[in-house]
Amino acid sequence: MTEQLIIRARSVDDVVEAVGRARREGLGITVVAGGHGPWSRNPDEGMRIELSAIAGIDIDGTTVRVGGGATWGAVAARLADHGLAISSGDTASVGVGGLTLGGGIGWMTRLWGLAVDQLVGAQVVTASGEVVETSATRHSGLFWGLRGGGGNFGVVTRFDFAAHPLPAIVHAEYSGDTDAAALLRATREALRDAPRELTVTYMDVPPMDPSAPAGARLIAVWAGAEEDALREVLAPIGALDGVETAITTPAYRDILMEMPQPDDPDQQPPGFIGGNGLFAELDDDLIARLIAFRADHPASVVFLRSLGGAFGEVPQESTAFPARDATWFVMAGGFDIPGLVDDGARAAIAADWSRIEAGRLAEYGNFADTERPEAVPGMFTGAAYERLRAVKAEWDPQNVFRRNHNIV
Ligand SMILES: Cc1cc2nc3c(=O)[nH]c(=O)nc-3n(C[C@H](O)[C@H](O)[C@H](O)COP(=O)(O)OP(=O)(O)OC[C@H]3O[C@@H](n4cnc5c(N)ncnc54)[C@H](O)[C@@H]3O)c2cc1C
Asked: 5-165+383-395 domain in CATH 3.30.465.10?
């Protein structure tokens, strides 16, 4: 049985003390914020620093200071009282820590960029136990690395974001018995010149349980109150054969899904054979491969999210996040369900996914849910990986922070 030293930090001083002890005793550190990452779910024999008690949210105008262990649901709920929002992910229980350090693709990414593009500063407990304030003008190399380089450089005890006013959103769902390829093609065309207030997610999932929706559907979120504008841009989708449209005007905090970690650590989700990628174009060939993937593998999912807009206007070299020229994020894979999926099916899923991934610009580390050290360079583009190695050498030369997509 694995024994892990667990530190439930309540203050920055606790984190400093824990890091010092890990360094003295030669323990690798697992940092846990929302707990959704693979290293949080799979303990090892090092030290686990849990940050959930460092989760304060302090709002000063549009500057929001968030403790390193907060979750996005808590942030969205607090900001809603002030008419503000930060583009995060789609799930309330996901941590600000993991999602931000890896990038953070959310519902307002075309309007405001990634979560990391809204980050203006951070407080970090470094491997040497120093408490460092960092921003674009203070320890700027470290700040650059934090924006996409994951948890490689220290424990972030506070994230400072620039939030945006968000008075309302419109939420639309297009589902029904429709031709998935036609839906994807129409979505691509609608998004080509769409206002950046609009972000969409396409998904095609098998029936998981009787209450959960299955099949191909499109979810669209418009950042603002302009329901007519959303209807107009997505009119070709509403007009597709078999499509049913449902439009509501919820609060942003209410569209974040609840997906807590299972109480029983042995209740791991089934294995996932597949992966993700940031793609320059959603061309007909990619659409055909995704449709065939879903059709050929019954227990499989296909998931896409639109990029472009503000995401693509952030200069590539200003953060560590890869592939700013991507216009779509794509994820596809089959569940490795014991008894249902045999060796032949496993190999077929893997082969089909590898043909899809061949066209990607980069892999998005936050959705790369297994430890694959050899894959880490492919999570960055241009000179970013070499630059991250230099930042790592400066701030964590002993690789104390190694339970992550590790920069070595
Ligand atoms: C249900 C679900 C929905 C998701 N939806 C989205 C989505 O919409 N968009 C998206 O971009 N991603 C999404 N993701 C992926 C998500 O961004 C990653 O799984 C992320 O790593 C989770 O962060 P966490 O804080 O919850 O996990 P944790 O396991 O706590 O953290 C993951 C890793 O991040 C590092 N880390 C976390 N906090 C800190 C900190 N304060 N200081 C230093 N290092 C830290 C550590 O290396 C840690 O191992 C989703 C994941 C799940 C499970």
From this structure: yes
